[in-house]
Write a structure and sequence with these properties.
single chain, 5 helices, mainly alpha, 127 residues
Length: 127
Amino acid sequence: MRQLWSAHQRFFRGMLMCSKVPAVAHAALDAIHQRGMCCVIGLQSTGEAAIAKAEAEGNIDDFVSTPQIVLREVIEKLFPTMIARNADDHNQKFKELCEKIKPCIQAWKLATTAATAANADAAPLAT
Protein backbone atom coordinates (compact mmCIF):
# COMPACT_ATOMS: atom_id res chain seq x y z
CA MET A 1 0.00 0.00 0.00
CA ARG A 2 2.90 2.36 0.77
CA GLN A 3 4.32 1.89 -2.72
CA LEU A 4 0.97 2.68 -4.31
CA TRP A 5 0.49 5.85 -2.25
CA SER A 6 4.06 6.98 -2.93
CA ALA A 7 3.63 6.44 -6.67
CA HIS A 8 0.26 8.20 -6.51
CA GLN A 9 1.91 11.27 -4.98
CA ARG A 10 4.81 11.25 -7.47
CA PHE A 11 2.43 10.89 -10.41
CA PHE A 12 0.15 13.76 -9.42
CA ARG A 13 3.07 15.97 -8.36
CA GLY A 14 4.37 15.56 -11.92
CA MET A 15 0.95 16.20 -13.44
CA LEU A 16 0.45 19.34 -11.34
CA MET A 17 3.89 20.61 -12.27
CA CYS A 18 3.14 20.00 -15.96
CA SER A 19 -0.15 21.84 -15.66
CA LYS A 20 1.63 24.93 -14.31
CA VAL A 21 4.08 25.25 -17.22
CA PRO A 22 1.87 27.30 -19.61
CA ALA A 23 0.94 29.84 -16.90
CA VAL A 24 4.53 30.15 -15.70
CA ALA A 25 5.81 30.58 -19.25
CA HIS A 26 3.18 33.26 -19.92
CA ALA A 27 4.03 35.11 -16.69
CA ALA A 28 7.76 34.93 -17.43
CA LEU A 29 7.35 36.20 -21.00
CA ASP A 30 5.06 38.98 -19.79
CA ALA A 31 7.60 40.05 -17.17
CA ILE A 32 10.45 40.03 -19.70
CA HIS A 33 8.70 41.70 -22.65
CA GLN A 34 6.17 44.00 -20.98
CA ARG A 35 7.99 45.04 -17.82
CA GLY A 36 11.66 44.60 -18.72
CA MET A 37 12.23 42.32 -15.76
CA CYS A 38 14.41 39.22 -15.39
CA CYS A 39 12.91 35.86 -14.47
CA VAL A 40 14.19 33.05 -12.32
CA ILE A 41 12.14 29.86 -12.32
CA GLY A 42 12.99 27.25 -9.70
CA LEU A 43 12.09 23.62 -10.19
CA GLN A 44 11.41 21.45 -7.18
CA SER A 45 11.68 18.26 -9.16
CA THR A 46 12.88 17.71 -12.70
CA GLY A 47 12.19 13.98 -12.84
CA GLU A 48 15.79 13.44 -13.88
CA ALA A 49 16.25 10.38 -11.64
CA ALA A 50 13.16 8.65 -13.09
CA ILE A 51 14.26 9.49 -16.63
CA ALA A 52 17.79 8.19 -16.03
CA LYS A 53 16.38 4.96 -14.58
CA ALA A 54 14.05 4.50 -17.57
CA GLU A 55 16.92 5.15 -19.99
CA ALA A 56 19.08 2.57 -18.21
CA GLU A 57 16.27 0.01 -18.50
CA GLY A 58 15.62 0.88 -22.15
CA ASN A 59 12.00 1.91 -21.50
CA ILE A 60 12.15 5.19 -23.40
CA ASP A 61 10.69 5.11 -26.90
CA ASP A 62 10.25 8.74 -27.92
CA PHE A 63 8.74 11.47 -25.72
CA VAL A 64 9.95 11.48 -22.12
CA SER A 65 7.22 12.00 -19.52
CA THR A 66 7.95 11.56 -15.83
CA PRO A 67 4.27 10.88 -14.97
CA GLN A 68 4.25 8.20 -17.68
CA ILE A 69 7.40 6.63 -16.22
CA VAL A 70 5.83 6.63 -12.74
CA LEU A 71 2.63 5.08 -14.12
CA ARG A 72 4.63 2.38 -15.89
CA GLU A 73 6.52 1.54 -12.69
CA VAL A 74 3.30 1.31 -10.67
CA ILE A 75 1.73 -1.06 -13.17
CA GLU A 76 4.84 -3.22 -13.39
CA LYS A 77 5.43 -3.44 -9.62
CA LEU A 78 1.94 -3.57 -8.19
CA PHE A 79 0.04 -5.34 -10.94
CA PRO A 80 2.44 -7.96 -12.28
CA THR A 81 1.25 -10.15 -15.10
CA MET A 82 2.64 -13.02 -17.10
CA ILE A 83 0.89 -11.92 -20.30
CA ALA A 84 3.90 -10.09 -21.74
CA ARG A 85 6.63 -12.67 -22.33
CA ASN A 86 9.13 -10.36 -24.00
CA ALA A 87 9.96 -6.64 -24.06
CA ASP A 88 8.13 -5.99 -27.35
CA ASP A 89 4.90 -7.52 -26.05
CA HIS A 90 5.31 -5.62 -22.79
CA ASN A 91 5.83 -2.27 -24.53
CA GLN A 92 2.88 -2.92 -26.85
CA LYS A 93 0.59 -3.71 -23.90
CA PHE A 94 1.74 -0.55 -22.13
CA LYS A 95 1.12 1.55 -25.25
CA GLU A 96 -2.39 0.10 -25.51
CA LEU A 97 -3.04 1.00 -21.88
CA CYS A 98 -1.76 4.55 -22.48
CA GLU A 99 -4.12 4.90 -25.45
CA LYS A 100 -7.03 3.92 -23.20
CA ILE A 101 -5.95 6.50 -20.61
CA LYS A 102 -5.55 9.37 -23.13
CA PRO A 103 -9.27 10.36 -23.12
CA CYS A 104 -9.10 10.79 -19.33
CA ILE A 105 -6.01 12.97 -19.64
CA GLN A 106 -7.64 15.07 -22.37
CA ALA A 107 -10.73 15.58 -20.19
CA TRP A 108 -8.46 16.57 -17.29
CA LYS A 109 -6.71 19.14 -19.49
CA LEU A 110 -10.03 20.67 -20.53
CA ALA A 111 -11.46 20.79 -17.01
CA THR A 112 -11.99 24.20 -15.46
CA THR A 113 -9.38 25.00 -12.84
CA ALA A 114 -10.30 26.37 -9.43
CA ALA A 115 -8.54 29.65 -10.31
CA THR A 116 -10.53 30.04 -13.53
CA ALA A 117 -13.79 29.27 -11.74
CA ALA A 118 -12.94 31.78 -8.97
CA ASN A 119 -12.12 34.46 -11.55
CA ALA A 120 -15.39 33.77 -13.39
CA ASP A 121 -17.33 34.06 -10.12
CA ALA A 122 -15.58 37.32 -9.21
CA ALA A 123 -16.20 38.94 -12.64
CA PRO A 124 -18.69 41.78 -12.52
CA LEU A 125 -22.09 41.10 -14.03
CA ALA A 126 -22.79 42.81 -17.36
CA THR A 127 -25.73 45.17 -17.28
